[in-house]
Fold each of these.
Amino acid sequence: MPGYGNDCSGNTDSPLLGTPLVQLEDVSKHFGLIEAVSHVSLQVESGSIFGLVGSDGAGKSTLLRMVATMIKPSSGKIVIDGLDVMSQKMRVKPLIGYMPQRFGLYQDLTVGENIDFFMDIFGIFGAERGKRRERYLGFSNLLPFVDRLAGALSGGMKQKLGLACVLVHQPKVLILDEPTNGVDPVSRQEFWDILGEMRQGGMTILISTAYLDEGEKCDHMGLMHKSRILGIANPEEFRSHYPNLEEAMIHRIKEVDEGLIYDRFGL
Amino acid sequence: MNLINIKAVSRKEFYHLIRDFRSMYLAFIIPLLLILMFGYALSLDVDNVKTMVVDHDRTELSRDFIRKLDASSYFKVIYHLRDTVAAIRYLDQGSTTMAVVIPPGWTEDIKADREAQMQVLLDGSDPNFASLSRGYITAFVEAYNRDRFIDFLNRSGKERIEPPVDGRIRVWFNEDLESQNFIVPGIIAIIIMIVGAMLTSLVIAREYENGTMETVRSLPIRGGEFLIGKAIPYFLIALTDVLVAVFMGQVLFGVVMKSSFWLMVLASTIYISVALSLGLLISIATKSQLVANQIAILVTFLPSMLLSNFVFPVENMPKVFQLLTYIVPATYFIDILNGLYLRGLGLDHLWPSYLVLVGMLVVLSNIGFAILKKEGM
Ligand SMILES: Nc1ncnc2c1ncn2[C@@H]1O[C@H](COP(=O)(O)OP(=O)(O)O)[C@@H](O)[C@H]1O
Ligand SMILES: [Mg+2]
C-alpha cells in the first residue's frame, strides 16, 4: 500500500512544516535474500524533525543510508530538494549532513583538526571558517577542547563533535543514525537541544532512534519494524489510542507479527 | 578533479602520518638504516686488508716484497712480527685478518731457481672476505713474479724485452667492481616499496576499520581525489628518501651517477607512483590492515628484495622466478637505475623500461579507481 507518509501530511499542528523536502517513493533494498527495507514511502517536510523508531535490525540504518546517497535502492525513488539521489549524487551530497550509526571521527586528529577537515572539503575558508568553528563547536560545548585528540573524548562528546562536523557546512537536510545510542542522559538532552535549535533555523532533520522518548520529540515519527514502516503519525496521534507510546508500539508490532493487519496505524 | 578536496585529504593524511609512530619509523628510520646497513655490511670489496708480516728471511728481496705489498691498495701492513705464534694470536683476537710468512732461505731459493714458498694465514670467519683476500694475495704474488721475471730478462739480455701476453680482465660498467654500485639502486627500489606500498597499504584499510570510510563516502569527494590526496604525503616522503639515498650513496660510498640526475628523478617519480597505486589498491581490496600488510610484503617488498640481487643473482633463480620478474615493477626500475648509474645511458636506451612503468601505473591506478567507484565513491 503506497504512501503511509501521505496520511499525516495534512493533519499536523506544527507551524514550521512546509513543503516536502525529502521524498521516498516505494523504496526497497535487498541484500541477497534479505529484504532490509521493503516498500517504504514517506515524506519529510521542510523544517521538521522526522523520527524513525524501531528496534535493532528493523532496517533504519539501511533506509537512512539510501537517503544519504551511501547505497543505491534496489527499487523505488528518493528525491531531496527536487534532486534525484541516485542520479545526482554529487549535487545532493552538499545539501545533506549525514552522521552514520558508527560515526567515524579521526581519533588521532584533534577536535579542531576534525572539524577543519570537513570545512576543507566544503570549501569554507577565510573569516567564515573561524565563525563556523566558533559557532558549531560552541553549540556542542567543545570549544575548550579544540586541541584535544578526538580519541580522548567521552562518548557523548564524540557524538557532539560528530554533529558539529556534519553541521558545519549548514546542510539543508540532516540525517542522523541513532546518534544518542549509548550516550549519557545529560549529553542526550544537550544533543536534542542542538537539534531543536537547528530546526528553529529551518533545518530538516531525519533521525533514527531506538528510544521512544526521543521519538516523542519529533514532529513526525515512523514506526519501523521488520523492514517496513508500520505507520507514520505525530506522537500525539500515536498516543491518542493508548495510555502511552510504548504500549501503542508494542500493540502495533504484535498485530503485524500476527499477520493481522496492513492498514493504517490504529485508526 | 577538485584541488580543494585533494588538499583537504592530503592535509588530514599528513596528520595521521606524523602522529603514528610506526609509520614515521617505516618512513624515515628504516630507509636510513637500510642505506647504512647494506652500504657497509654488503660492501664486499676488499681493500686495505689489515696484514701482518713475519719475515724470517730478512733480505733485500723480502723487504722489497713487503714494501710493495704495503704499497698496494689492497693490503695494509700493520704489524711486523718475529714469529708465526704472535701472528696466530693476533688473528684469534680478530685485530687483523691476514698474515704473510716469508720462510728463511726464501731469497736463496728464488736465486737458485728452486720453488720458493711463502705461507699465508687467513681469518676464515668471514668466508666471503677470506676468499676475496685470498684472490687478491694470489694475484699480487703472480704480478710480483711477473715483474721480477721481466726485470731479470731485461737486465740479462741485451735488448729490451716486451712483457709476455698480459692477460688482464677489464670489467665494464662497474669498473672498480664495487658492490655498492649495484646495491644503491637496489636500496632505492626497496625503500620506495616500503614507503610507497607497505605504508599506503594500511591507509584505506584503516579508514574502513575505524568506520571513517562511511564518513568520507558521505562527503562530496570523488574516489580519484581521495586516492590522490592520500598518496601525496607518501609520495613526498618516498621522494625525499630517494634523494637521501642517492646523496648518502655518493657521500658515504662514492657511488656517482653517470647519467642525468633528472632522469633518475623521473624514473623514481613514476616508480613511486606505481608503488603507491599498488599499496592503495591492496588497501582498498582487502579493507583490513593486517591482511593488507601481509599482502603488501608478499607482492611488493619480497620481489623487490629478491630482484635487487641482495639475496642471490636473478640468473641463478629457477626459470619460473625469472619469468615472474617481468611482471614485477622493481625489475624495470632497477634496470633503469643500473643504466643511469653504471652505464651512463640515456632515455634513448632506457625508454622501454620507463614505458612499462607508466603502463603499470595506468593499469593499477585505474583498477583502484574502479573498485572505489563500485563501492559508491
Ligand atoms: N550491508 C549489508 N549486507 C547484508 N545485510 C545487511 C547489510 N546492512 C544491513 N543488513 C541487514 O538488513 C537488516 C536491517 O539492518 P539495519 O538497516 O542495520 O537495521 P537497524 O539499523 O534498524 O538496526 C538486518 O537484517 C541486517 O542484517
Ligand atoms: Mg542501525
Amino acid sequence: MTTTPLQIERELAALRGSAAGEQAGMRTHIVDLVAFADDAAVATACANAIGALRHSRPSRALVACGIATATGVTAESSVFCSPMQEGGHSLVCCELVRLQGPSDGVALASMAASLLLPDLPVFLLWLAPLDPDETPFASLRPLATRLVTDSTRHPATLDVLGGLIAQGREIVTDLAWTKITGWREVIAAIFDDPDHAERLGRLEQIAIRYVRGSAAQARLLAGWLASSAETDPALALDPVARDDMRAGSLLQVALTAGGVRFVVDRPEEGVAIVDAPGRPRRWVALRVPPFETLIGEELDFLTQDHAFLRAVAAVS
Amino acid sequence: MAVNPLRDELRMHRVPGPCAMVIFGGQGDLAGRKLVPALYNLYLRRLLPTGFALIGIGRRDAGGDEGYRAEMRARCESFSRTPVTEVEWQGFAAMLHWITGNFDDAATYAALAARLAAADTDLGTAGNVLYYLSVPPSQFPVIVDGLGDAGLAAETDRTFRRVVIEKPFGSDLASSAALNASVHRAFAERQIFRIDHYLGKESVQNILVFRFANGIFEPVWNRNFIDHVQITVAESIGVEGRGRFYEEAGALRDIVQNHMLQVLSFVAMEPPASFDAEAVRDERGKALVSCRPVRPADVVRGQYVAGHADGRLARSYREEEGVGAHSDVETYIAMRLLIDNWRWADTPIYLRTGKRLPKRVTEVAIQFKRVPHLPFSYAAAEQLEPNVLVLRIQPNEGISLRFGAKVPSERIQIRTVNMDFQYDTAFSSSPAEAYETLLLDVMRGDGTNFPRQDAVEESWRIIEPLLDSWQLQGGGPHHYEAGSWGPEAADELVARDRRRWRRP
Ligand SMILES: NC(=O)c1ccc[n+]([C@@H]2O[C@H](COP(=O)([O-])OP(=O)(O)OC[C@H]3O[C@@H](n4cnc5c(N)ncnc54)[C@H](OP(=O)(O)O)[C@@H]3O)[C@@H](O)[C@H]2O)c1
C-alpha cells in the first residue's frame, strides 16, 4: 500500500517508543543519509550495513530503491536501538526507512525531501549506474550536500564524475577511493624516507595489478600518483583472475621513480610487503575495511577531498 | 623537512619519523597490558614509523626474541582492542626484541647500544630512540644514570633521544623535585615526557575544543555565571591486588595530585594564544599557579568498610591483600578548592574520588547560577534545578546539558530535562586508547598532552598542606560502606556551602 510522510513519521515514533521501552531513546543528530539502489538486493545489503554501523549512525537513513513495476511509494520503517556503552540507561536509536517507488525516482525524491531531519547535511549514497541528466539522479541530487558513488560496482561512474565535480554543486567522493586509503598510506610511507623523497617528482612508470572485474581502484590510485608527480608517467594496468579477493582489489603496485623500482605486494588480505632499494623488506598491515566501515569513514567528512578531485582529473 | 606531498591531504595521518622504542620493564604489567597492545594497534592503523623496532629489557630471561614475541602475543590476545590475527601479528612481531639484564649493570647498556646499532642497520630506525621507563620509580635514577654513562642519552643534530616516565612523579614536593633532578642528570626537560594517561583521552582533549571552538560557552565560563564546579573520579572496584602499592599512595597521591588537577587545569585555564604545546602548557600551568593550597578543614578523607558493591558483598579495605590491618590510608577523598584569579574568584571547585563507589564514572559538572528572578509560581517551578553542563570523560564519553522545560499540559509546570551528546554515536572511529595517542605524541615530539615539571610541582604545592597536616595529626579517615557514595562528612563539606553532590 502506498504511504505518506505523516504515516511514516507516526510509525517511526511508535517504533522508537516500543524499542526503547522504559529507557530513554535518544538520537545524536549528525547527518541525514539517503541511499539509492536500482536493485533490491543491493538496497538490502546497504540497509544491513547501516544497521551494522557501530558508530556514526545517521540519525535517519532513507534507503530508496527504484522498481520498474511500482506505481506509488511504499515504505518499511525500522528503528535500531542499542545501549550507550557500559551499563547506561539510555539507548541510542537510529531510524531506517526503506522506500520503494517508480524507477524514475521523482516520487521517491519528493518523499525523501519531506522525511529529512532539519538543518543537517545530507549524504547521498549512489549505488546505481549514474547518468547525471536523467531521473532518478537528477531528482535526488538537489537534496545532497555530499555525494558518494561506488565505481567499483559501476566502473563507468568514474568517467562521469569529472563532469559532476566541475559543476561544483556538492562535495563528491567515491567508495573505490575510500577503499584505497590504506594502499595510499603504504605508498606515501615510501616517500617519507628522506633518501627517496625527491624521487616522487621523477615518477617514470606506474604498474598496477588488480583483481579483474573493475579497474576503478587501480585507475584512482594511478591518477593520484600521477597528479603528485611532475612528470607524465607511463601507466600499465594489469587485471588478473583471483577468487580469494573481491573484484577490483589491488594486488601489486610497482613504481619506477628516479631510476629505481619500488614494489608493494599484497599476497593476501591483511598484509602488504614493501620493497624499496637500500631498505630492509617491510611488512605492513593492509586490510580493506568492510562496507559499513567505508560508509562510516565517509560520513565523517564534510569537506572537499582535494586529493580525490586531483586523482579524478588525472584519469578523466 | 619538506612535507611529503602525498600526505598533504585530508585522510592521511601524520606518521612519525623512524625510531626505536626501548621498554625498561618490558615484561611488566603496564608493558603487557597497555604499551605493547597500543603499539600493535598503531601497527594495524599504519601509524608506526616505517623504520621501527621495539626492544624490551628486564632481568628475567624471556627466552630471547622469540620467547618475548610469544609472551607479548598472549598479552595482545587478552588486551588488544582489535583482535590479533596471524598474518598481521607476524608483521608486527618481526619488530620485537628482548634483552635480559639488570638495570644497574653496565653490560646491559652495552648490549642495548649494540642492539640499537643493529636496529639502525636492519630496521632503519635512523638513530632515534625513545626510552620508556615502565618500572618502579626507585629504578628511574638507576636507569637514567646507566643511559647517561653509556652515552645513550645524548642527542645529535639529526637524532633524538627521549625518555618517558610514568606516575607517580614523587610522593611530595621535595621527592618530586629530587626525582626530576635525577632524570635531568642525563636528559633535558624537552626530552622528558611524563605520562598522565588521562591527558590522552579524547574527552579530556575535547574540553579545549568545546571551550575554545564554540562561541556560546566561553562568555559564560566564569564566576559571573558559574555557581560551582564538581569533578568526580569514581571507581567501583577496590584496590584489586594492588594493596601494597596503594598503601604507599592513597587516593590523594594516586588520583588527585595528577589526574584530577590536570583535568582541572583544562577546565580552568585561559584561552591559549595558539595550540602549540608550550602555549597550552603555559596556560594550564598558570591555572594551577592560581590555585590556593587546600586547607585541611576543606578536605574529607574516607576509607571503605565491607558493604555491597556491584551486587556482591565486598570486603573492607583493611582486609585487602597487602593492606595493614590498622591502615589509615584513604580510599576516598573530597575537597573544596579555590582559584584566585579574575575568572574563578569565590567559585568553589569540589573534587571527589574514591574506590568502591556505586559506579565507575569520571565527569566534570559545571553548575550554573540560578536565574535572578523566576516569573512563575512556586508550584510551577518547584522541580526546576539549576542548569548543569556535564562533560563525561568515562565511560560514555560525551556532553550533556540540563535545562528546564514545560511539561505538556494546560498549566505551567516546569521540569528539568537532559540534552545529550554521545561521542560514540557521532563519529565513525571508536576513540583510540589513550596510550596509542600518547605514544604517537612522544614519537612526534609533541609535548602538549604531557604535564611539564612546573605543573607537577604546582600540583604538589596545592596539596602539600594536607600531607603536612596528616603527618602531624595523624587523623584517621571516615569510614564508608563499599557501594555507597562516600562518607557523610563529604556531604556535610558541600552542605556547608548550601550545595550538594550530584549523583552521576
Ligand atoms: N600497571 C599500571 O596500570 C600502571 C598505571 C600507572 C602507572 N604505572 C607505573 O608504571 C610503572 C610500571 O608499572 P607496572 O605495573 O608495569 O609494574 P610491574 O608489573 O612491577 O613491572 C615492572 C617491571 O620492571 C621490572 N623490574 C623492577 N625492578 C627491577 C630491577 N631492579 N631490575 C630489573 N628489572 C626490574 C620488573 O621485573 P620483574 O618482573 O622481574 O620484577 C617488571 O618487569 C611504574 O612506575 C608504575 O607506577 C603502572
